[in-house]
Amino acid sequence: MQIVSCPSCGAEVKFRSHASVMAVCEFCGTSVLKDADSVKDLGKMSSVLEDYSPIQIGASGVLGKRQFNVVGRIQLRYSAGMWNEWYLLFDDGATSWLGDSSGIYTITAEYKGNGITPHEINVPEFERLRPGASYGINGAPYIAAEVRVADCIGGQGELPFKVGEGYQSKVADFRRGAEFITLDYSDSPRPVIYTGAAVTLDSLRMQLLRDDDAIQRSARRYRGKLDALDCPSCGSAIKYLPGVTTTLVCPACQTKIDAASPEAIVLAAGERVTAARPTIDLGATANINKQDFTIIGMMRRMDDEGTEWTEYLMYGARAGFSWLVETDEGWSGATVMSEWPVVYAPGQQSVAVENAQYERLYDYGSHVTFAAGAFNWRVAVGDRTHVEEFQAGQIRLACETSDQEMTWSRSAPVAVDQLKAWFGEQFHGRATPAKTADNKPFVNNRYRNAAKYIIGFMLVINAIPLLTNFSGTWFMNAIGALAIYLPATFLDSNDKS
Ligand SMILES: [Zn+2]
Ligand SMILES: [Zn+2]
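Predict the joint structure of the above. Result:
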């Protein structure tokens, strides 16, 4: 550790990591640049916005068998919201980033290459990247999942590069099966390559986190607990989950609110529209396989031929987010997929994911015609996506592409009787259409068992790079094992109905 005096206030500023080039004085907020011989004052760093993150500088954890401490943080804002990157220093001197986006955590480490110098790694140019397109990176095709430009809005602690007012982060995420990598073009047209993995704070056995009460004291609300915020425009109470849902659309007046931080900001005034009564009430709760779920948002979407359907966003404390989708043909439950196809190209006749083959059904353009409630992304009426659907038995995959990102989700049918059993009086749907009622090929929890198997498998292969050489391995991930578990829950529930 190196200790220097803050050029502005004289307080001690610590550099724990050799890789750190600057640190923010915790007393006066001055950015201190650590040069070879001298210490430079870079001016004041904007202080980070209060948020609901349980992580703080000084917290510690374990990845594989390696101990780390949180030594720095940058906070970033982009078109879809805000997130934190926490700078981790391992006991062996290595460093990584812990991404923290409203309760979704990822660890990324710089890929140093297996004897390959960065100049030999073939990567595309940032300006040419398009979500959904496939790019050859280091000899294998990767699908661009998200391309984003973000502004650094604040920093804390020590950091491995010079960052301050006007610092722009240009990054793109790529997927290939269960692998994910990030290319960071912020400092040069030749990006730094990071390999990543999704993690939970439990799996990192983190200590010295801010507890629920500490977050409540500073942010005035409990993170992840259903709360209500008064609409700044009309005063109606809008139910949401602080720290988990970031965009609110007032159900009464359609005003759009950014609720990523405790200072709720109006994004756009609403226009009053008369929406049809939803089939499931916003705020409706259900106990599904011993877990409590709440309906927190709903949106109507329309395809290019004018067919409309409704999607209800549902949240469970352990299961996270899932969807109930109501169409003219009946209901289905959907979750975002953690694993993507290894090979994909737009218009492809079939895709293989997790050892199953799905055949192409159709593709169409769609846009959002109405939204109300709380969401974990910045939804807006008029949002356009291109959707491709694939099918195997009763399981469907939907691949949705917008200008910024591509997502994959998996869905399975849910019977109306089942929804009635879950939601009771809060469900206003009609009887099950005959064609789905007669069609029950599923027996005895076999889907859930299969899902459990997949989760176990993912955790096992995930542990191998964790236990060997994290930063030198093409690292693969196990994003939210629950995302796989939940659609299986939908399927099994159908069997029993
Ligand atoms: Zn100072
Ligand atoms: Zn309102």
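The first strand starts at residue 2 and ends at 5.
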